[in-house]
Amino acid sequence: MAKKRIVTATINGREEEFLCQPRQTLLEVLRNTLNLTGAKEGCSNGNCGACSVVMDGKAVNTCMVLAVEAEGTEIETIEGLAPGDGLDPLQEAFLENAALQCGICTPGYIMSAKAFLDKNPNPTEEEIRFSMAGNLCRCTGYDKIVRAIQQAAEARCGQAASCEKETV
């Protein structure tokens, strides 16, 4: 058996240190070690997006990332998205547009949408659909999810001084 490793990462704005085996996924550590259960295990092979979080500004499927790869990274989970006194505009938009049913895919969609909107604050419908292609929903239907992301983008643009796309 391989030796456990100590990993330090910033998770939801706080430096966290955890012990993990080299073969453990980030999803396993988030859920079972750090008790951050928002990321859901869906497919365990990177196809459904239910386990998505934002890692160093990009949406990643935590079932495909080894926990040891999180060393020195900044991770944001659904638990860290909302301010203490309410919901994030993305969460509000998902509720208002009935863009959720069973809830398994919802945290992954919201975190993927956050990473996308951070890079592209004023997207077209086509851009939203393309960016969400890595997330699957088996019960809500994609139109409601797309409308929720559009509404969140509009709300974010209303709060921001500029809604220009980030140049990469």
Question: What would you note in describing this structure?
Answer:
This protein has 168 residues and is α+β, with helices and mostly antiparallel strands. It is built from 5 helices and 5 strands, in the order E-E-H-E-E-E-H-H-H-H. The radius of gyration is 16 Å and the shape is globular. Helix 2 (89-96) runs antiparallel to helix 5. Strand 3 (52-55) and strand 4 (58-61) form a beta hairpin. The chain is 33% helix and 15% strand.
Shape type = globular
Radius of gyration: 16 Å
Strand residue content: 5-15%
Instruction: State the separation between the terminal residues, measured CA to CA.
Output: 42 Å
Largest sheet: 5 strands, mixed
Number of helices: 5
Tell how many strands the DSSP assignment holds. Answer: 5
What share of residues is helical? 25-40%
Q: Strands of the largest sheet, in order across it?
A: 2-1-5-3-4
Mean pLDDT figure: 93
Query: Can you tell me the residue ranges where pLDDT is under 50 for at least 5 consecutive residues?
Result: none
